[in-house]
Amino acid sequence: MRDWQCQAHVKHYCRYHVVFLPKYRKKALFGALRREIGAIFRDLCCQKGIELVEGYAMRDHIHMLLMIPPRLSVSNTVGFLKGKSAIQTFRKYKHVQRNFTGRHFWARGYCVSTVGLDEQMIREYIKNQEVEERRQEQMQLAGL
User: Fold this and answer.
1) pLDDT, tens only, 28-58
2) C-beta atoms surrounding 9 within 10 Å
3) Residues 6+ apart with CB under 8 A from 88
4) Please, are residues 18 and 8 in contact by the beta-carbon 8 Å criterion?
5) Catalytic residue annotation
6) How far is 40 from 43, CA to CA, in rounded Å?
7) To which H or E segment does residue 61 belong?
8) What is the pTM of this model?
9) What 3-state DSSP class applies to 111?
10) What gap in Å lies between CA 51 and CA 54, rounded to an integer?
11) Which InterPro entries does the record cross-reference, listed alphabetically (predicted)?
12) Is a pLDDT exceeding 80 seen at residue 12?
């Protein structure tokens, strides 16, 4: 059964699968940064009243399943998460800043998809993203 969220004049179930990546798709998310990026996003989500349902950080991209209330737009939410997380990352991990020009950590765009009846499938996909990527790499190598 779905967990419907209630606010003053609305009852909603707004879940989004969001994917974004570091500038130039650099494999910049590793070590301590990869372990702590989840905490950064959880804190930012709490500030805006967004629920981070599921998330996974690969070396070159981030998958998140977010519950965004209808009062917030998806584009503003993703912009907030990307902007504030970049600032916190550069402050906390000075070595990351050397590999990027200016204060641009994330690439300009992002991918977003609404989640309907297949929420469990998307949660499993996010959890098993690393295994799936390795399987695809092995299939490409076997084809060569």
Assistant:
1) 666 667 778 888 899 999 999 999 988 888 8
2) 5
3) 40
4) no
5) 125
6) 5
7) none
8) 0.75
9) strand
10) 9
11) Transposase_17, Transposase_17_sf
12) no
At 115, the amino acid letter reads: V
Task: For residue 54, list its beta bridge partners.
Answer: 65
Alpha helices (H) in 49-143, listed in sequence order: 74-92, 94-97, 119-127, 129-143
Residue with the two structure tokens 């990527």: 133
Q: What's the rounded Cα separation, in Å, for the pair 36 and 45?
A: 14
3-state secondary structure (DSSP) of residue 17: strand
- Residue type at position 111: C
| Block residue for tokens 């084809």 | 143
Alpha carbon of residue 39 to chain centroid: 12
Q: Which two tokens stand for residue 118?
A: 């297949």
CB 115 within 8 A of CB 86: no
C-alpha dihedral over 51, 56, 61, 66, to 10 degrees?
-20
